[in-house]
Amino acid sequence: MARIVSICLTDWPVVRLRRAGRLPEDGVPVALAAAGPGGLRLTAVDAGARALGLRPGEPLGRVRARVGSPLRILPAEPAADAAALERLCLWAQRYTPRVAPFGPGEDAFGLHLDVTGACHLHGGEAGLLDDLERRLAAGGIPARLALADTPGAAYALARFGAAARSHVPPGGTAAALAELPVAALRCDAATVIALKRLGLKRIGALARAPRAPLARRFGAALMMRLDQALGLRPEPLAPIPETARYGAARSFLDPVSRQETIVAVARALMGQIAPRLAAHGLGALALRLSLHRVDGAVKALDLGLASPGRCPDRVAGLLRLRLDRLGAALDAGFGFESIRLDVTAADRMPEAQGMLGAGPAEDGIADGTAALAEALGQRLGRPLLRLGGVASHLPERADRILPWRPGTGPAWSPAPLPPRPVLLLARSEPAEEVLALAPEGPPRRFRWRARLHRVAHAEGPERIAAEWWRADGPARDYYAVECEAGRRLWLYRSGPHAAERPAAWFVHGVFA
Predict the structure, then answer these.
(1) Burial class (CB within 10 angstroms; exposed 0-12, middle 13-18, buried 19+) of 138
(2) Which end of the chain is more exposed for a tag (fewer CB within 10 A), N or C?
(3) Residue 73 — φ and ψ, nearest 5°?
(4) 10 Å Cβ neighbour count for 281?
(5) pTM value surpassing 0.85
(6) What pLDDT, on a 0 to 100 scale, did the predictor assign at position 508?
(7) Is 299 helix (H, G, I), strand (E, B) or coil?
(8) What is the rounded radius of gyration, in angstroms, for the C-alpha atoms of the chain?
(9) Burial class (CB in 10 A: 0-12, 13-18, 19+), 79
(10) 299-357 pLDDT, tens per residue?
(11) Are 337 and 249 within 8 A, CB to CB?
């Protein structure tokens, strides 16, 4: 079950100005205003202005005529508020990488933290809330916190809950939301007013009401918000992307579209990034080239390196291979007006000494295998994979697929094994009508996939016992058989043969 923390920031635009030192500490109430329907209207107020009866949305002219006491009114800065909120989201990634700001349907500033599986790193859920509350208070950021099973429930409790901090145990969402107003469901104002006229003022009463009449009158949006808050319908979050620490960009007066120009610009951008990587002893493992078209569209190309590197020529070569594969699919349109290169993944890169008189060593390429892997990855458009060993001797569990990394190869067994089939079936298939000359001998004839196969030659048996630490099961006797038609298969007999219960046979693989 998911666990979500919602942080509802109290008077965030005013708090941002105060933290930036732009408001004097003279006790004068503060309100922010911006252009709205009918002229200037309040967009945010602090506690002092709220004590005077001011609320966001009021016309500024009416406020000036009604309030006789001193009042400081400043212009609202929504772009600066959003940028500061994004920086706070990046700070909150100390608790979890999945942090998302409140969406447009949530009439407040705040952020969601998906702390599923991360609470134990901070002493449990209560410890995480304690640490978060302490750090926000130390930074002078008043906030209301709530921890619940869903983003909708956490937001409702943080925004409309009676306490400044709410901690709902798993499975207690419905009971915690029952007494909250229906406005906590993030519905539009007209729907909230209509529900109150019907006597449905609380979420608990709304949840108990018949759904069909409500859906016919208010549409699917109301039921969706209710189900999301109660956990009956998923509500995915959109976490902010992690910003790249190493990047460079270049803009053009005349848009560019030729492949040679794009490669040359990428080489120059990597030349700007490389000294910064070298200063920290790092090399790039993955890069993203963002091509911004004139019409506003963005084409992003991800480049993967087999080993850490910061050589501009190496990056340019990989990009050339990627562009060759794309061809006309790149769709430059009327051209690209700016190009940006970002390092999306980096790793430690020790300095390597080059040969005397040969200049610096080609960074990151220790052998031809790494260069081949990089080239194949760009040509194929997907990362290379390899087989890795698993602590199991059963054929279907002995290997797993892993991403290829430099210095890794196939998992070799310490002892040579008998030949294995090229194709191992995902699940062994039963063989029927098996005829063997001896009870414990190899098969001479069997039916598989509705065809009768006659065995011309058989090798085996190779006995593979069951994994006793998992479950006690019968041993398998494997045979590599060649049919008269030329097909080579891998069969096994499950358990010993008995007169009262003949052993079952299965086909497990196909040889080349």
Answers:
(1) exposed
(2) C
(3) -115, 125
(4) 13
(5) no
(6) 96
(7) strand
(8) 33
(9) exposed
(10) 889 888 878 889 999 999 999 988 988 887 788 888 999 999 999 888 888 766 555 55
(11) no
